[in-house]
Amino acid sequence: MDAPVDRLRVIAFSRPAAFVVAEGEGFFADESLAVEHTQARGSAPQLDALVRGDFDLAHTAADNIVMRVDRDGADLAVVCVAELGVAQRLVVRPEIASIGELRGKDLGVDAIESGYATLLYDILGRRGVARGSYRPVAVGGTAQRLDALLAGSIAGAMLAPPHDLRALAEGARVLASAADDFPGYPGVTVAARRSWARAHHDLVTRYCRALLAAARWAADRANRERVIELLGPEAGSPNAAVAMYEAEDRAREVAAPTLAQAHAAMARVVELRHPGRPPEVERYFDPSFTAAADPALA
Description:
The protein is an alpha/beta fold and 298 residues long. It has 2 domains: 6-85 and 185-297, Periplasmic binding protein-like II (D-Maltodextrin-Binding Protein, domain 2); 89-181, D-Maltodextrin-Binding Protein, domain 2. Helix content is 46%, strand content 18%. It contains 14 helices and 12 strands. The strands form 3 sheets. Strands 2-1-3-11-4 form a 5-stranded mixed sheet, with helices on both faces. It has a 5-stranded mixed sheet with strand order 8-7-9-6-10, sandwiched between helices. The protein has a two-stranded antiparallel ribbon with strand order 5-12. β7 (106-109), α5 (116-126) and β8 (135-138) form a beta-alpha-beta unit. The model has no long low-confidence stretch (mean pLDDT 96).
């Protein structure tokens, strides 16, 4: 007789290597978890659904959680930072040769005031393109931004694997990488309703344990060929899977970071939104699940 499993409903923009490894190599199964993945089309509907209880967990940019807690007092928290290092890159239409040429252009973002749009604005500002000299347009998640870029309705957007790779195959250019400007930034990040997570502490801990172990396994170059195989359906082709693996590997700074590293990464997110006197990180991050999942990280 099969052992009972617990179902978890997860909404995410994509399935990074840590997730597909947790699924394909049995890390979720080892924790008696049956994980149902739904692709998010934008952070606003994603987090609305999480708040409603339509989903149990969300893989989303940490800044989205900070914004929702600040703006709405939402009962949300980051419960696990499985990797450090952000793979998002500023990808532009083939006719755009420099960042300065983005002045006066429409740039696609997920949400105007949160997520990787925050990094986009900072990247442009550091290079002399001030906010107000271009038009951010909310078009949705990574897949939707790719579609808008290829259709020519926007001049550029922040994209991550495999979507940035698909854009490059169509002649798009990369003008900047978030990893260069934001070292130590949270990469694979899991969020939940704080009250629900506390009431289901063991369940969330098991998910975090599986994801952290899978992140370590995926980062081990000895497992490269198997990770590429698992990425195949996500990437769309064997060659794209290789490119996706290499892109994630380059961006990944730390797999399964310690709680001190995760806290510092979350502090960076909070400071970007609250320059000067940022609130305490614990307002947005609950470290208890990682501590329970892997005491060696505490």
